[in-house]
Design brief:
The chain is of the alpha+beta class. The chain has a single domain, classed as START domain (Alpha-D-Glucose-1,6-Bisphosphate, Chain A, domain 4), CATH 3.30.530. It contains three helices and nine strands. It has helices at residues 44-52, 57-60, 155-180, and strands at 6-7, 19-28, 31-40, 64-70, 78-88, 91-104, 108-113, 120-132, 135-146. The longest helix is centred in the last third of the chain and has 26 residues, at 155-180. It starts with 5 loop residues before the first strand and ends in a 6-residue tail after the last helix.
């Protein structure tokens, strides 16, 4: 069953000017897929730099308990580590992701998980950037297929809800952090 597309052109509840334009979460062929589009009232150099810095991601995501940039791999690609914690009622579990980061300044960031070292078969993310109206539009795409068991009857609905609400709540924190973040210089 397709998830409901939530198209919002303004969110007056946010203290900042960030505007969530679209968020879609779905469950397709055993993978969870999320796509969102947000306009931030922050220049592209700051928002790009913040989202490229894995050391900062635990500050804007409520599920990331630890994250950091790792030394580049033998092939020269950037690498990252993150540990997330998810709870279903009173049961909480931590999950680790090790992966690779590729990017083109001010265009995109792509993070691909290493399934041999992670709790996920697939956990790939991408951020695409474009300047618009003295701010920055970020299109975020996420595809995740866990190695761990998710109860088939209620699991997908709960996980989709958590992805949606977690993404929405991170938007304002990202904008606040990006305003004070040092601009990325290529």
């Amino acid at each position: 069953m397709r998830a409901m597309i939530l198209l919002l052109t303004a969110l007056p509840a946010f203290a900042g000017a960030a505007t969530l334009r679209e968020i879609n979460v779905d469950h397709v062929d055993g993978a969870y897929v999320m796509r969102s589009e947000v306009w931030f009232d922050v220049n592209i150099e700051r928002i790009y730099g913040l989202l490229l810095d894995w050391d900062e991601s635990s500050k804007f995501s409520s599920v990331i308990v630890e994250s950091r940039n790792l030394a580049p791999g033998p092939d020269g690609r950037g690498r990252y580590y993150s540990q997330t914690q998810g709870c279903l009622w009173f049961f909480c579990k931590s999950f680790e992701r090790y992966g690779y980061v590729e990017h083109e300044p001010f265009k995109y960031i792509r993070a691909t998980v290493d399934p041999e070292k992670s709790d996920f078969e697939v956990s790939d993310e991408s951020w695409e950037f474009r300047e618009e109206a003295d701010g920055t539009v970020v299109v975020y795409a996420f595809r995740m297929k866990p190695k761990f068991f998710i109860p088939p009857l209620i699991g997908p609905a709960i996980l989709k809800s958590k992805l949606r609400s977690g993404g929405i709540s991170a938007i304002q924190r990202i904008e606040v952090l990006a305003r004070d973040y040092a601009p990325y210089e290529d």
